[in-house]
Amino acid sequence: MSGDTKRVLSSASIKKEYSWKDLYGNEYFYYKDPMKDAVSFVLLQELCERLAFYGLTPNLQTFLKEYLGYTDTSANSYISSFNSILYVTPLLSAVISDTLLGLYYTIVIFSFVYMAGLALLTVSSVKSISQPWMIHLSLLVLIAFGAGGIKSCVNVMGAQQFHPEHHRDLITRFYTYFYAAINLGSIVGGIVTPILLQEAGFTASFAFPLAFFILATVLFIIGNLMDRYVKPKPQGSAVLQILKVVVYSVFKCSLEKNKVSRGGKFEDNFIEDAKAVFTLLPMFVLIIPFCMAYNNMTTAFLTQAKKMDRDTFGWNMPPAMIQNVDPIAVVISSFVVDSFLFPYLRKHDWMPEPLVRFCIGSLFGAVALACALVVEYQIKSQPLFTVSVWYQVPQFWMIALGEIFLMSTSYEVAFTYSPVSLKAVASAFDLCFFAIASALSAVLFSLCQPWLPDFDPANPT
């Protein structure tokens, strides 16, 4: 070990009060207050990255209709397909992070892919040079792979900054803050880019997310240069090993027979770890119905908003702007839930188990769709542009409550209930069910196209 490396480790051991050795003998050092000293960089990165993503998505439907000539339903199906690819990609990044690079460098590399996609999309918005292939390459390849590639890694890296014993009770708080950071970024991006689209056009509305994503990447790298992160070393291709276990288990009709002690090819401990991950899959299935409801926010809910009265104190508010009710509701509700509701429930030993929180979140998703149905009935019953867009607030707020109880809990479950060696894999599997929900949404939009005529606000008749 070089002298410089020793000095870094010595410095780390002084600044970071807690240490931990993994099963391979690697020693890591942790801050006494990781939320402030390390996780703050991860949360800032997530905030800026989500600002970029959610600054992009509110305008996608309108962009696809104008630049590719899509109808509402075909644009909605395209967006759902884009989301589906995005949520499958974490499996690829999990292989790379577990095998070659570790979480930090995987995040950095996929961030540059993401950045290239945002840059190409910005260029494609210049009509004189825009080509369909530029839009498809930027959205379905670069942005989908870039955003998806870092998605399963960032929350796991943030959680790894907490000591496994001393900071165990802080994990739930971290995931609540993590989801709040997502939605703070969403608020800024969701407010600014629709205004930029209305006032300056698509190029400005896409350049804004690009600028903030560059900032996100710079902040994240600065944290590493300041030696703030705990960076566990790669421990092998867990995803590939898991897939091998699945194949062998199918042929043997047994998971237990894959253990070395039973004549199999895999270490007994790894099979036990795999079993722990597999037991989470039935719970992850519960994500699908809520995520299908969630996908309506940038698709069907947007089309609905275009048919409504958007006058706000004399200003014709962009239809995508109402989507910001969701992140605002998440931030407010997260604070109430984390500061008052959950502490009260823990104090009285009434804290609901993750499965119960999943069911509560799904219930909120169902209520959101019921609210949207009532609003749609009102729109159909009255002349166009007469029902106030603010009647959409309840459906967005219900989605937000569902996110707090279901989505943030799914991240927590993937990290907390998975073994150390398979945490990134569990997180990737969690996101795969988001992908399934998006794929089902795309199919549903296509099937419903005959019943959903295209709506053009300029020619509403």
Automatic annotation (TrEMBL):
Source species: Perkinsus olseni (Perkinsus atlanticus)
Taxonomy, superkingdom: Eukaryota
Topological type in the membrane: Multi-pass membrane protein
Membrane-spanning intervals of the chain: 102-123, 135-157, 177-197, 204-226, 276-295, 325-343, 355-375, 395-417, 429-452
GO cellular component term of the entry, any: membrane
Single GO MF descriptor: transmembrane transporter activity
InterPro entries: MFS_trans_sf, POT_fam, PTR2_symporter_CS
UniProt keyword terms in alphabetical order: Membrane, Transmembrane, Transmembrane helix, Transport
Name of the protein: Uncharacterized protein
Pfam families found in the cross-reference section: PTR2
Subcellular location: Membrane
The family this protein is said to belong to: Belongs to the major facilitator superfamily. Proton-dependent oligopeptide transporter (POT/PTR) (TC 2.A.17) family.
GO biological process entries: oligopeptide transport
